[in-house]
Amino acid sequence: MANKTKQWATIIVMIALFAMIAFVTHLCSPMSIIVKNQFGASNFLSQIGNYGNFIAYLIMGVPSGMLIKRYGYKKTALMALAVGILGILVQWASGVAGFGVYLIGAFISGFCMCMLNTVVNPMLNILGGGGNKGNQLIQIGNVFNSAAAVAIYILMGALIGDAAKAKISDATPALLIALAIFVIGFIVILFTKIQEPEQVVEKKEEKDRYSALSFRHFKLGLLAIFLYGGIEIGIPTYVLQYLTSTPDAAVPGLGISATVAGLIVAVYWLMMFFGRLVGGAIGGKVSSRTMVSAVASVAIVLILFGIFAPKDVTVSVPGMRDFVRFEDANFTLVKKDNLEYEQVFIIETKGKVSASEILNRMNVFLLPKDRPAEQGWEEVKDVRWTGQRKEYFTSKVKSLSKRVTAEIVPSAEPSIASPASTVTTY
Q1: What is the 3-state secondary structure (H, E, C) of the chain?
Q2: pTM for this structure?
């Protein structure tokens, strides 16, 4: 019974590591939008952080296996988390230190992800008993991996907001979450007794004339994991770039907000979440070969449809067309037919919204001529309210203000405010 309890504790820790891998790995895709804006990088250069993250796998793959062989799974996981903490801190510092430092941080994080993957996958397979059961446990771990990926795209989309103004500092909450996950993970694993599988003691024998590359299934496996990595990361990364790039950019896109784009891309990972959930449920009875063959066949059909379907064949995505953002607001004077002037308040929006809806949700006040004296502030005569700090618009100022009536100025499209609404104030 005690042995089973220890085994489940190890399984839970390994699954938690699976989620951590996704959370940090998929920071790179939304971070590319930030890098593109803050450092003026091209689409290609903005993806170098992603390249660095996965090039680190190429460099660290074999050394990770050697570390496990020498120090075991627990110590290797702890080393990986320490490296991950360093990588996150370096990426965070890149907001001040520059693009090169960001790339170094992504590269260091890649080392961490490679080491964690080297620990997690074989451990879950061994704990599951190998074969279909071992694969089933890996699929369950991947369910949490996909859930973390969904979370990071939604979180980063909300933090970035306007892609054209994105900066590293916007990602601070996500980086702090990643840092906290690594620190907590380090402490938990440090005090968790992980049941290490027995290491095979190698005897000095005559060198085998066959290398791993002599076996066809090994070479096909290498090709499969190479293609899988490109598909898993490439699709959401470039969909995110396409959705957030403006229509007038060098590589034009749809120009929608990163918040909405993050939600759309998160759907990709949500579907992967359900796919892995089903895989985890049936993995003990259905072979990996059957599952891969079935889903790959369906994927080929869907991809061909996406390539050859006419551009006017679209689906409705909640939030993609109905979101509204206020781009600008300003006053101007317009001469009426009787040669009198009136103030016109012009609101520029991104997205479509009824002008009457804006008017119903807007209160217009005529501010007092003088700013009243309050605690810490002196009275200011004939104050120019434009550009004043929001702290000056106190309840006392509001009480001295006069509510005024506003109405919509008729235009070619009087019911729609896109790209601008015009409201007259009296």
Answers
A1: CHHHHHHHHHHHHHHHHHHHHHHHHCCHHHHHHHHHHHCCCCHHHHCHHHHHHHHHHHHHHHHHHHHHHHHHHHHHHHHHHHHHHHHHHHHHHHHHHCHHHHHHHHHHHHHHHHHHHHHHHHHHHHHCCCHHHHHHHHHHHHHHHHHHHHHHHHHHHHHHCCHHHCCHHHHHHHHHHHHHHHHHHHHHHHCCCCCCCCCCCCCCCCCCCCCHHHCHHHHHHHHHHHHHHHHHHHHHHHHHHHHHCCCCCCCCCCCCCHHHHHHHHHHHHHHHHHHHHHHHHHCCCCCHHHHHHHHHHHHHHHHHHHHHCCCCCCCCCCCCCCCCEEEEEEEEEEECCCCCEEEEEEEEEECCCEHHHHHHCCCCEECCCCECCECCECCECCCCCCCCCHHHCCHHHHHHCEECCEEECCCCCCCECCCEEEEEEC
A2: 0.60
